[in-house]
Amino acid sequence: MSEVTLVDAPRRRIECTVDDRPVRVGEGDTILGACNREGIDTPTLCWGDTLTPKNACRVCVVEVEGSRALVPACSRKVEPGMVVRTDTPRVRHARKLVLELLGSSVDLSTTPRVDEWYDRYEADPTRFGEVARTVAQPAKVDNDLYVRDYAKCILCYKCVDACGDQWQGTFAIAVAGRGFASHISTEYDVPLPESACVYCGNCIEVCPTGALSFKVEFDKRADGTWAEDRQQVTDTICPYCGVGCTLSLTVQDNQIVRVGSPHDSSVTHGNLCIKGRFGWAHVAR
């Protein structure tokens, strides 16, 4: 009997205009996808390529002709004939203000590309005051595997989604509190070792600001020895079981300092278990 290969049904193509450029994308694609297709660099923080958009950070807003408000590019689906502008004065002002408000309330020092965006949009978080950070708090170091530094948390919900129904299904963390008191918390705010956490580290994988980090990385940043210019990333196959997960090992000075997995992997989609993510400490011994 011949083997049957299942393929996705072809999607209808939709035509739109992005920054005066005609673009054809697949039905169901987002504005952000159309921008990426055209090489238009659109800043994002809460968007993740393996998660459903939450529209939390609003850094990716764009102007759509006929729309009263700016719309989030990460979740707004492209419609036939849609006219999108990504670099108007209104868009630039909105992105500048969002970056300033975020930068004045949380520590974005370990957020990739944020300094570049500050320069691009002439954002100055200090104009709200040098001590305006409203969520300043000590890092939670209650285990030997990873650190929770919520002074860097922008409440993007990506860690909650990765831990919950979108990937891991553990539901060890959630958003607690309301308004300015909102924060990421374990059940009853217990220490991580006493929670339902299974230490898969998939929350670390999706965190955009470094609020969640490997203990090794946290320690190296604290003592000033974290050096990305001396790091190399090598892909290998996890040896712990037969699933065949791809590991991306970040190595600095012959020491493994971080472990991830390619988001386009058909096996992991960026996710790992505790052994794949953290089971390499013996290598340094």
Automatic annotation (TrEMBL):
PROSITE patterns: 2FE2S_FER_2, 4FE4S_FER_1, 4FE4S_FER_2, 4FE4S_MOW_BIS_MGD, MOLYBDOPTERIN_PROK_1. SMART domains: Molybdop_Fe4S4. GO terms for molecular function: 4 iron, 4 sulfur cluster binding; metal ion binding; oxidoreductase activity. Signal peptide: none annotated. Residues 231-285 form the 4Fe-4S Mo/W bis-MGD-type domain. Residues 12-90 form the 2Fe-2S ferredoxin-type domain. It holds the Pfam family Fer2_4. Keywords: 4Fe-4S, Iron, Iron-sulfur, Metal-binding, Repeat. Residues 188-217 form the 4Fe-4S ferredoxin-type domain. InterPro entries: 2Fe-2S_ferredoxin-like_sf, 2Fe-2S_ferredoxin-type, 4Fe4S_Fe-S-bd, 4Fe4S_Fe_S_CS, Mopterin_OxRdtase_4Fe-4S_dom, MopterinOxRdtase_cofactor_BS, NADH_UbQ_OxRdtase_ferredoxin, PSI_iron-sulfur_center. SUPFAM superfamilies: 2Fe-2S ferredoxin-like (SSF54292), 4Fe-4S ferredoxins (SSF54862), Formate dehydrogenase/DMSO reductase, domains 1-3 (SSF53706). The keyword 4Fe-4S applies. This is Unannotated protein. The lineage of its organism: unclassified sequences, metagenomes, ecological metagenomes.
